[in-house]
Amino acid sequence: MMELSLPQTTLDALCPMHLRLDASGRIVALGPTLRRVLRGGAERTGADFSGQHFTSLLEIFRPRRITDITQLHAASGRKLHLRFTGRAEERRGGLRGLALPDMGGGAVLNLSFGIGVVEAVRDHALTSSDFAPTDLAIDMLYLVEAKSAAMEASRTLNRRLQGAMLAAEQRAFTDPLTGLRNRRAVTHALAELLRRDAEFALMHVDLDFFKRVNDTLGHGAGDRVLQQVARIMLELTRRDDTVARVGGDEFIIILVGLTDAERLSELAEHLIRRLEAPVALGEDRARISASIGIAANGEAAHYRSASALLEDSDTALYAAKRAGRGQHAFFRRPPEGVTSGQGDALRAAPEGDPGCDGPEPKGRGGAAAR
Fold this sequence. Notes:
By secondary structure, this protein is of the alpha+beta class. 36% of the residues lie in helices and 21% in strands. It is built from ten helices and 14 strands. It has helices at residues 8-14, 32-37, 69-74, 117-124, 137-172, 183-195, 210-217, 219-236, 261-275, 306-322; strands at 18-21, 27-30, 58-62, 79-84, 95-101, 107-112, 200-208, 242-245, 250-256, 279-281, 284-286, 289-297, 328-332, 344-348. It is rod-shaped and about 115 Å long.
């Protein structure tokens, strides 16, 4: 067989990550990419690796530890696992290698980055010119980059879509004037609470004398009154409660985990007192009050539908209005065998019955009068 002799430039082009070793295992030449990878070490100071033993640069540990040229010849043709000697940062992926003997008793050891090629390209700023033209690593890198770009674009699009969906849902459940929840949000909240058979109370609040205020000062000032009502309700309720505007001057408050009549009565009285405080509108002052009907889902009454609960709270609300307004009333569960909506309402009013005759408004009312 004719002996084949390759110039170093040819070997550099075919195997840019190779080492040529002499019969004693010392380095005769390095491929250009291997020199580039080692640039952060001795080569940066101008040192030459020629003449050094290969173990000064490489540690071959699999299939077994190899420390001389004889052992390297014995492993000829087998896949080798290597790492750079003393360079901990190269240990995460390691190197792969193949050693073949030459005609002079030495060897050619060709290396690759194996599965660590992506990190190697990033860490050593390698480009396509640092790989052999037939090396599929570059094609794989292009695919990885394309996949990464596509995945990031998909994640960005998903984040935008999710944000748009959340914003749309927020708008769908929000009253634009007051920022409170709306009727759709109430329906959703009640359905979920009843599904879980949770204990909660529902306060149905209707503003008293708001139409009179609305007729005197106009819609712009009335909007400010409604916004003040919303602020008061949020101040007196908890983060987990639902406060909603479900009509022009009609509100619903859902109080999760609260069914005690005494505490509910205290809250209703406090809310009415706060709402009866005059609302300053420039030089004018608007005065309103509120009537409140309360129905609770708990030990005393278990509702199967939101409509029945709303109907009962509405019954209690109108009992409070008939009693003189500025008051609150509880829906009393009907006796066994009587259907929902045929019950009675127990009236409760704040001490002194404030607002029963209705405060005299001074100003113009809100945008959505009854």
